[in-house]
Amino acid sequence: MSTADTRVAPAILRTATGREAARWVAAHSREVPWLTAATVLTTVAGAAFQVLPVLLLGRVVDGVVGGEPQSILITIGTLLVAAALLGSAAAAASTYLTGRLGADLLARLREGAVQAVLGMPSARIEQVGRGDVLSRVGDDVAVVSKGIRTAVPTVFSAGVLVVIATVGMFGLDWRLGLAGAGALPAYALALRWYLPRSAPLYQKQREAQADRAQALISGLNGIDTVRAYRLEDAFREQVTRESWRVRDLGVEVFRFFGRFVGRENRAEFIGLVLIIVVGYVLLEADAVTLGEASVAPLLFHRLFTPLGAIMFTFDEAQKSGASLTRLVGVLGEATEERLVGRVAVAPADAGPYPVTVEGLTFGYPDSEQPVLRDVNLVIPAGGSLALVGATGAGKTTLAALIAGIGTPQAGSVRVGSTDLAGLDEAGVRALVSILTQETHVFSGPLADDLRLAAPEATDAELMDALRTAGAETWVAALPDGLNTMVGEGGERLDGTKVAQIALARLVLGRSPVVVLDESTAEAGSQGAAELERAVSAVCLGRTTLFVAHRLTQAMAADRIAVLDAGRVVEHGTHEELVALGGRYARLWRAWQEGS
């Protein structure tokens, strides 16, 4: 008997550290080296051309004081014009390349995050709540997108300009450079005060927005229940409470940022005073020229604009950073899921596989007793097994575990010789497909809906799958055939047709093992009869597990397992169990009397 990891997953999706997010950005920047290098070079060039006119101004002052010929002014004026033109061109190129690099990184991040969420086990998504999931792939992506368009280019170019201007001050005279650097401790203290306090605050703000989204989604998804029980006021109060929490955190963030700006202004004042005093002392001692002494304050003053830009976009940058860590955290969580075990899957077209359930025990984190206890079952390759039992017996839980959704606390589920606990989500789906009564039809052409299961399928293959599912006649009668719009805003489909589309997807998926959890429960009696015939055709030659809603379906299975309180209490064919006179026999008599 193998024992699985019993660690309980956190109640929200993972959030990466700042270092992890930085490593992700650096790794993906290295994948486009020419674009990254061009972005850095044009930004440095643009900053240098912005500093050059200030240095040339000092040369003008020295030229006037030294009585140099007028031609020097013409030369310097020409250089000023050239620097302005080249600086504008470099700044424009830097802005374009930064935006392009940012858009490329955002596209990779968005696609990776969505792919990671789609690849997560359904149980994990239900555990963390759809509000957290949607806020990450929706709100967080939007925040990062806005930051890439505004804050990131501003902070990057301004930061480079600060470095170039500081180097220019040291180039004039090392003492003038040190005087300007005297402001650095004040800047450092301001940042040291601000950064450790602001990051958790922004994180709380993003989490509050996720909670607000969850409250909205819960109310909208259950709107019929809310109206039926007159719970509108309760849900309105919940949404209002979460909205006020978001607002209060927003006010706190703004107030906190204002205090940070005050500390930054103090640092600027300290640096400007130091550089003016030192410049005057050096000028009196003839250690620097008048031009150098006058340029140094101008260079330091030149820092005010980029530093101010950094400060006033720091709020947006912090928001983007918080959202980036949440998105990279999703990627990291998906990586952890993939690394739980090996990814070794036999080809789906290699024929049917037996399913072996051995010593399986499973319980939910908040339940005192296990839902399933020491369950042992075998479904022969290409055979079928029906699960029967009263509500709460554990049928759906067992079906989900056999479908690879969730991890047992003890025991194993094997398809052939492969333990599902050692596979990632994609590996499990290649071996096992599950179909429940909660079937969704996506908005768009019917062909696109079907190709979700087989993207490369031809129209002929789609029609073959629909024919197997018993849907060929009504699909052929649609106004545009396979191109007919279905789902929201499209052709109205009843429960039987929706189930047939799901069965057609099952055919196209071609997994060797199929789990059907009351997949015909929502159809009427006539529709159920049609669907049961379609299910038999779809599952022909595939290893199949049924959660039987109707005992006629159980009777058609090769064998039947009766669950009670999480244990298999009876197991055999329909005839054997009826002759046994136990629980199944009583269920069968009750079914016949009620039919």
From TrEMBL:
It comes from the Bacteria. InterPro entries: AAA+_ATPase (IPR003593), ABC1_TM_dom (IPR011527), ABC1_TM_sf (IPR036640), ABC_transporter-like_ATP-bd (IPR003439), P-loop_NTPase (IPR027417), Type_1_exporter (IPR039421). GO terms for cellular component: plasma membrane. Residues 355-590 form the ABC transporter domain. PROSITE patterns: ABC_TM1F, ABC_TRANSPORTER_2. GO terms for molecular function: ABC-type transporter activity; ATP binding; ATP hydrolysis activity; ATPase-coupled lipid transmembrane transporter activity. Keywords: ATP-binding, Cell inner membrane, Cell membrane, Membrane, Nucleotide-binding, Transmembrane, Transmembrane helix, Transport. It is found in: Cell membrane. It is a multi-pass membrane protein. It holds the Pfam family ABC_membrane. Residues 37-319 form the ABC transmembrane type-1 domain. The chain crosses the membrane at residues 32-52, 72-98, 151-170, 176-195, 267-283. The keyword Hydrolase does not apply. This is Multidrug ABC transporter permease. It comes from Streptosporangium minutum. The lineage of its organism: Bacteria, Bacillati, Actinomycetota, Actinomycetes, Streptosporangiales.
